[in-house]
Amino acid sequence: MPSAGSDFVHLHAHTEYSMLDGAARLGDLFAEVNRLGQTAIATTDHGYLFGAYDFWKQATAAGVKPIIGVEAYVTPGTSRFDQTRVRFGEAGQEADDVSARGAYTHMTMWARNNEGLHNLFRASSYASLEGQMGKWPRMDRDLIERYSAGMIASTGCPSGEIQTRLRLGQWDEAVRVAGELQDIYGKEFFYVELMDHGIDIETRVLKDLLRLAKTIGAPLLATNDLHYVKREDSASHDALLCINSGSKLADPGRFKFDGDGYYVKSAEEMRRTWAELPEACDNTVLLAEQCEVSFDTSANYMPNYPCPPGEDETSWFIKEVERGLNARYPDGISPEVRKQADYECQVITQMGFPGYFLVVADFINWSKDNGIRVGPGRGSGAGSMAAYAMRITDLDPLQHGLIFERFLNPDRVSMPDFDVDFDERRRGEVIKYVTEKYGEDRVAQIVTYGTIKAKQALKDSSRLLDFPFAMGEKLTKAMPPAIMGKDITLSGIFDPNDKRYAEAEEFRQVHAADPDAQKVVELAKGIEGLKRQWGVHAAGVIMSSHPLIDIIPIMRRPQDGAVITQFDYPKCEELGLIKMDFLGLRNLTILDDALDNIVANGKDPVVLEELTLDDKKTYDLLARGDTLGVFQLDGGGMRSLLKLMRPDNFEDISAVGALYRPGPMGANSHTNYALRKNGLQEVTPIHPELAEALEDVLGNTYGLIVYQEQVMAIAQKLAGYSLGQADILRRAMGKKKKAELDKQFEGFSAGMMERGFSMDAVQTLWNILLPFSDYAFNKAHSAAYGVVSYWTAYLKANYPVEYMAALLTSVKDDKDKSALYLNECRHMGITVLPPDVNSSSANFTAVGADIRFGLTAIRNVGANVVESIVAAREEKGDFTSFTDFLDKVPAVVCNKRTIESLIKGGAFDSLGHTRRSLVMVHEQAVDSVIGVKRKEAEGQFDLFADFGASDADEAIGFSIDVPDLPDWDKKQLLTFEREMLGLYVSDHPLSGLEHVLSRAAETSIAQLITDEGRADGSVVTIAGLITSLQRKMSKNGNPWAAVTIEDLEGSIEVMFFGETYLAYSTILAEDQIVTLKGRVRRRDETMSLQAMELSLPDTSAGPDSPVLVTVPVSRCTQPVVERLRDILRTHPGATEVHLKLTEPGRATLMKVEDKLRVERSPALFGDLKALLGPTCLAS
């Protein structure tokens, strides 16, 4: 290190890991430290150590010495278990007193060595585990003293206890506290910290701090409260503070920093500031020399499996595999299975992973044995025979042509990674099991960090600058669409070298034309990519052989007490920790509910694992595209592909899951597969020389490469690679590193040419394999998920009522999905009955050939209310009247809003009164009964005691006189029903007008919102009913409207702005049937429309007019005619179809045979337009 007289080390730095406060990006930070010639820097983020390892790793790589510290939150003299707020001062001194109204003080700490580093981890961890108060993890004196070894500390910033007491005039207390801390850390390792940002709170106590240091003999330490890298970054930091506080930049009195001096100052600047106290700067270099920490990246903390006495993990693993093989193959283990199992056991043992397999098998088998549904497999692990034997997976890898080396490669040592799907309702039980079995101190969920993405940065910046909402919308809409969920960066938009630069021309034009937009973009650039908040990994759980607190810092989530790592998974993995993925899959919950429904509906139980994969009704359903609600296969585009493909075996289900993704679709592989399968496209070899050689590999996929495993098999068969080498080739192709690719091509071409193939064949094959690797899919995953797809399709085809009831239950909180599946029930001929207090359970249930609405789906009716209603019904019998209902249920049910919701939702219809009649008396009824109920609950008397009363009502003590009123009209009934249930159940205002919607719209709303391929900004026409209308005014005084349009299948929000609003505002009204042309707006996972045109469709034409399809004679090839016939068959109904055959100068009209009559629907029209073009339905 340079001499102390010229250098300086920043020891108080808040990086991007001090979320919504620190704006110092690590890469920029170390670059600036290097530019300034400084050799070390510390991180002291607030309370947590989120960035400690990342900081250490990046600093080391940049040649900067990393010092790991924390600006700790410390209790104000109380125990960390005590949540009492404490004031040190008197009334009137609040501005100078303990931070956050008495919640905490600050203290700066640094790790001097590795013992200190791990003590820092422990103190930070327990501060959260035991001392959390709101958002602050708080240490107390006990933790500070217990974990002081190997540490250095200071008096801290102005929020520290010592400076706080000095401001309050409590000199003796300040000396006492400083002396106690000096005794804890040692005289050499406790500093008096000095700051000077030119603000009053610092200058007021400077003399007292110097006097204190002299009094106790403590060295001085000069720091800058660093929150960003360069002075000009202060605007970005100020924006973060506004986001954190919900303020705008111009808000008076908001929290902000005084000045712009919180950056990485040069040594000269710092020494100039402290020219009279040079030792305070010298000591920063001394402290840096005192610190030397490192992280162990060679450790392995694989969780230990508790083996039976006399066994170790290897011996027990081999025995478990053998037991499993005998169970899987009761008729005998074939030589192929035996060979594969022995090979895998050898590889797994040599790589040291028997314990991993045992642990995974343990919690999966515990789940299965305890009735928790587990998915048949996920990811490449389904390719392992050992996993299949141990019941980790439920897919025979040899039967499905799966490759073990894709999961675990003996030629490339890396951790195996089983991702496991569970019934989403019971995932927590599995985590609880592993926590209890393997140790609460060794299991934790994993933190994630949410960053500010480009679009969010634009919206935030627009709001902070107080521009109208439309400004953020205009800019985000002008951005190119995300690719694979990833947006172009704001810097990339203006960088000609960015690969997506050309796509951002519209954004640059908007930016250039609007000075206000330029201000927004400039501010957004500064905050884009910074960390906004932490969250919890959706699936990941760390399991360790050692207590986690001895390896990494951990914390407790305040909401539920869950223990979570402070490092995210990539950092945990580098430090030797093992992640298990416990995923909750809604479709497994649906399967379990459907199986329960089958039994409850009086049918024989179904065991999914015993089903063969060749059920004709299932494949007929798939070929018709009737897959709404079927796992992976329910999107509009997917359903169209299934109709074209007409799957008839499991290989097709596996393939369609791999093909219906952006990469293969971009290459048209999905359509080519479907056409080739049905003889509508010739199967052409990749190269004439390769036709025979690749038949075994590509025959099942009609000459197309669909899976990663096929790439590996090609390399093995044609170039002589081992499967381990082939997996390395596959990975190299995906990474696209030229040097590695050149090396791989040399070996690949040599291997092929040794086997007699020409360089032309080699090069042709290589040129196909290389781009394919960008989107190649894992067959093990596709096949395993294909099984779940098959199971859901099987149940829909064979047990439609029970399956659809389970499906509706799964989406009961999503009104759009509920409406979609309710309409599907109508198409399937299934009646969905309204809720009923005598018949409904909590969820949707199958009742014979019908489905009964669940009570928990009614608005304002909570789970506890439903449990009470069902319990009262089961204990005391069906409710015979409204009075009887109020008598039998407990007080928790007797709430006016709850009863009104039940009435309007139709739940009392079976008791013989109109809904209108019951609404008229329900408040009086509740008032009459609630006092009696409360006394009964308090045990004051028995509500059911019969004191000689002559009838039931007299025995009860009250009677409800329900008037005999006619019910509301249909419109009002349905309005209330929709209000309470979120959708129309008993009827729909658009019933009977299906033909109007079909003619007016190019797609149904449900098809639109489930169409993954529908691009942001694309134009679409829909038709439906306006169910909600909100007229609003922007801050600039411009009127606009938010409208909800609903058809028979779904609903969507539509925005009317500017001239469009003014043009159509007079016809915007609730209950109006409209046709709307709009532009798609995708925001995160939500779709809405921006209105372009609005009209009123003609509702006078009857539904029986024929469907007229225009077809050019030149298009009437056999494949097109066959496909047209299939489309008409798929939409059977009562409406005639007429064909208009056109050729130059002539048109011929002909009627299609009656057996091909259809039902008008957007789905029919969409299929026709996809085949024959968008003008085929024009008259």
Name its key features:
1179 residues; alpha/beta; TIM Barrel; Arc Repressor Mutant, subunit A; 7 domains; seven-stranded mixed beta sheet; six-stranded mixed beta sheet; 48 helices; 25 strands; 14% strand; globular
Could you outline the blueprint of secondary structure elements for this entry?
Elements: H1 26-35, E1 40-46, H2 52-61, E2 65-74, H3 99-102, E3 105-111, H4 114-129, E4 138-139, H5 141-146, E5 151-154, H6 161-167, H7 171-185, E6 190-194, H8 200-203, H9 206-216, E7 220-222, H10 234-245, H11 267-273, H12 278-290, H13 313-328, H14 335-350, H15 354-369, H16 385-389, E8 419-423, H17 427-438, E9 443-451, H18 454-464, H19 469-478, H20 490-493, H21 505-513, H22 515-527, E10 531-543, E11 554-556, E12 563-568, H23 569-574, E13 578-585, H24 586-600, H25 616-624, H26 636-645, H27 650-659, H28 662-666, H29 669-677, H30 695-698, H31 708-719, H32 723-735, H33 738-754, H34 759-772, H35 779-798, H36 800-810, H37 815-827, E14 832-833, E15 845-847, E16 850-852, H38 863-876, H39 882-888, H40 896-904, H41 915-937, H42 952-956, H43 970-981, H44 994-1000, H45 1005-1009, E17 1019-1033, E18 1039-1046, E19 1051-1056, H46 1058-1064, E20 1073-1083, E21 1086-1095, E22 1107-1112, H47 1118-1130, E23 1132-1135, E24 1137-1143, E25 1146-1151, H48 1162-1172
